[in-house]
Amino acid sequence: MNDFLTYNFLKVTVGVICTIGLYTVLYRESKFYRFFEHLFLGLAVGFAIVALWTETMKDLWWDKMVGTQPDVQGGLGTPGYWAYVLLIPIGIMGYFVFSKKHNWMSRIPIGIILGLWAGQQPKAWWTRYSPQMQSTLRPIFPTTNTLFHPSTAQFNPSIPADKLAIDRIDHQVYWSQAITNLIFVFTVVAVLCYFLFSFDFKSKIMKFMTTSGRWLLMIGFGAIFGSTVMMRFTLLIDRMYFVWIEWLKHLVLHIPG
Amino acid sequence: MADVPAKSLGEKLQSINRSTLFLILILCTSVPLFFPVKLPNRADAPSMDLYQKLMTLPEGSTVLVQSDWTNSTRGESGGQFNALMRILMRRHIKACIYTAADPQAPEVARNAIAELNKQQDAAHLPEYKEWDDWVHLGFFPSAEGTSVSIGTDVRKAFAGKKATQPNGTQADVFESPVLKNIHAVRDFPLMILITASNTSNVAIERLYGKVPLAMMVTGVMGPETQVYYDSHQLVGLSKGLKGVYDIENMMQDGAKIAGQTFPPFTGPGVINKDLGTRYYPTLHMALLLLIVAVVVGNVGMFLSRKRSTQ
Asked: Does the distance separating the beta carbons of B169 and A73 come in below 8 Å?
C-alpha cells in the first residue's frame, strides 16, 4: 500500500491521467479535454515565469545590479552595477504596444532589437549559405575505373604511410560518387529552372527541366513528410511507453525490465 | 421510404471510422513495447561521424552542449541526450550545458542527468557530478544574441552565472573544473546542439567556423539539417530515432569508423541501450500501419472509380 503513496508514484500517476485526458480529444472535444488543456497551459506559463527568474534574470540581471554578499566559506562578493536598472524602463516601454495613446514608445525597444538583428543578418546569411554553395560544385566525372570507394579498414591513420594511402583513396572520384554527384547537380539545376517564373519557356529542354524540377521537389517534400510522420509516431510511442511501461509495468505491477 | 443503396467495398474502405484507426494505432504503438526485439541496423554516415568525434575527444576536455529540448520531444531528444551524456561520463569528458530555446529545458536536462546518476549508483559506477563534471548555465533568451555573444567572448557571455559546488554553496561557473580552462569558444573541442527547434540554424549562422559543431535533431528536422552535414558545416549529426538507435548500437557493439576501432562499452551494470532501442521496433509497427492504411485507401479509391465508370 505504501508503494502507492510515494511521491514518485503520485507524480507519474498524475502524468498518466493528464496524458489520457489530453488524448481524449481523439474521440471528441469535451469539457474533460478542455480541463486538461487549460491545466497544461497554466502549468507551462507558471513554470516559465518562475524559470525565467531562476534560470535567467536572477544571475544575468538582478545579481549584477544589486551585487552579491560574500558567502560563509570566505568567497568574495561582487559590487552592484546600478546602471542595469536602466533596463527596466526600456523593457517596460515594450508593453506600451497595448496602449493606443502611447504605443509609439514600444517602437524604441522593438527598433533596438530589430536593428541588432538586422545588423547580424548579412554575416549570418553568408556563414549559413556560402559553404553550401561551395559544396554544390561537385565533380561529375570519375577519376578512376573503380565503382565503389574501397574499404580503408586495413590502414591505421596514426601511421604516416597509411594516412597517405587513406588520403589517396579518399581523394579519388569513384563511379558511384560521380553518379550521385550528377543526380545532385541535375536536381539543383532542375529546381532552379522550375523557379524561373519570369520567362515563357518554349524550348523542349527547358520544359523538361522545369517538369523534372517539379517532380524532384515533390520527391523532396515526400521525404520531409515521411520524416515528420516518423517523428510524430515516435512522440506517441514515448507517451505509450510512459503509460504502459513506466507507470503500469514498473510502478503498479512492479515488473522489472 | 427510398432504399439507401448499400456501400460498395471501395466506399467502405475509404470511410473507415476515425476512432477505429486511432484504436489500431494505439494498439500498434503499445503492444510491441512489451516485446522488445533487436532489429538489424547499419549506422548512417552522419551518426558514425558524430560517434567518431565523440570517441576521439581528449579525456578531461570540456564540450559545450546547447540543450534545447523539453519533454514534448522526449521520444527522440531524450534518447539523444542520454546517449550523449553516457559517452561523455564514460570518457571522462566534461560538459558545459546551456539552453537558448525554452525556459523549461534546463530542469529537463538536470532531471535526465539525475536519472542517469541513479542508474550509475545502482550499478556502483561513478556519478557524473555537478561542478566537477558538468555545469548547467541556465536559460539564455534570444538564441541569436547568445550565440553571437558566445562566439565573441565566452567569458562575458557566461559572466555572472553560478553553479552549485559539492559543499552546497553557489560559486562562479568559471571557478569550476569544467570552465576554468576555457577562455574563448575555440577552447571547446566540440559544441553539440540537441534541439527540436530553429536554434540549429541560429547556431550555424553565428558559430560555424568558430568551434566544431555537431547536432542531434528530431526526425522532422533531419532533411533540413542534413544539408549542413553535406556541406561540412557539421562534423556529425544524429537524426531522430534512427540516430539514437545508431549511437546506442555503436555503444553496445563497438564500431569501426575510417580505420579506427572503437570497442563497446562493457562492464557490470553498464547500460548502453535505452529509449532508441525500446522505441525503434515499435516505430516500425506504426509505419507498417501507415503503409497499410495508404494502400487500403488507394485500393478503395480505385474500386470506387471503377464502379462509377461502369
From this structure: yes
